[in-house]
Amino acid sequence: MLKIDRARWDILQRDDLAFYATLTMQLTDKIGLPKGAAFATACTDGRHIYWGEEFLAKLTPEETRFVLMHEALHCAHLHAWRLPTDALGNQAADHAINLILQSLPGCKMPEGGLADPRFCNMAEEEILTTLRAEQRKPKAADDGSPSSPPGPSAPGDGDPGDGDPGDGDPGGCGGFMQPGEGSEEGSATSEQLQDEWISNVVQADMASRSTGRGAMPSGLQRLIGDALAPRINWKAEMADFVRTQVQSKNDWSRSCRRMATAPVIYPRRVTDQTGRVIFIRDTSGSVNDYQISEFNGMIRDSMRETGCGAYVIDADAQVNAEYEVDDADSIPPKAVGGGGTDFRPVFRRIRELAEGGMEIAGVVYITDLDGDEPTAADVDHELLWVCTTNRVAGTGRTVPIR
Predict the structure, then answer these.
(1) Prediction pTM value
(2) Do the Cβ atoms of 368 and 288 come closer than 8 Å?
(3) Which of 92, 154, 219, 225 could hold 128 in an S-S bridge, CB 3.0 to 4.6 Å?
(4) Where in the chain is the domain with CATH 3.40.50?
């Protein structure tokens, strides 16, 4: 176990591996393989990494780091949900993630690992289709005549075999099991565990972005963006954010005096503390007119539902226009601007407004997040980024427009 702890510690110390370090921290190590495991090397069920004792004993420190990140990437790439948990599924997954890990210095792939350059930039499903097609092709016999299709291979002999789970680990770096298959807890469903790993990847990306250390691989960015797309309704998320921030201004410490003897104590709204929600429109040209129109409609709906006032700011690399809006129908339809993008000036302006006495319930910013972001110290209020791309901000919460 000390060997694994040292490998994880080494990854944590590397600036260029910050993204991967965060992922490896989500898995608990267990020495010994679970009953019925198809791999004699290592495997993960989304909760743990199970290490074969003989396999672990033979690994060098560089190889141990490689296998540790290899297993974490099986989870991050959602392989247990995308691919069959058989020999061919493992091979397709191994080619995809090993090609990523091979480019990282200080990590060495164990001998026999799979990383065919012809699969570079290919999705795992596409790699699996290619491997299956190749498996179906009859091999030429020594006399030149075609031979019969190959039968099942022996465990760990490096042949794809027939894809049966008992084929072992042809890739030699560790594989993946059904989600939660080896877990004794059994507390999370497969879908819940998948959601957790999507969240883990997003958080790892945010952590590496905020520190400027490491980066998420581009293929994983596309995967997580696609995974989030059907799950998030940005309009519902924005409406809920505004509603929550405005309602948090209710005063629960003082009840209406006429209800003092009632069995239910009702809160009294402190109208002078309801606050305004600041809505910022990115006018750098990255947000199109249709998206601004949708955003304006959501501002109107939020004002009518909550009774809050709005403060609309148009900004690109600077603050271009400000509107104090009390009537939901008086929001300017056109945004003013068209330059580059720098988010920091508008947050300085928000701080000035707060220091000038404005009660601010929260901030909503529609943008593509392509620009200089504010730091956590620059953001004084609850913040929701409504993003037109798959980027994730290092501050506040980000929901993508779909």
Answers:
(1) 0.53
(2) no
(3) 92
(4) 232-400
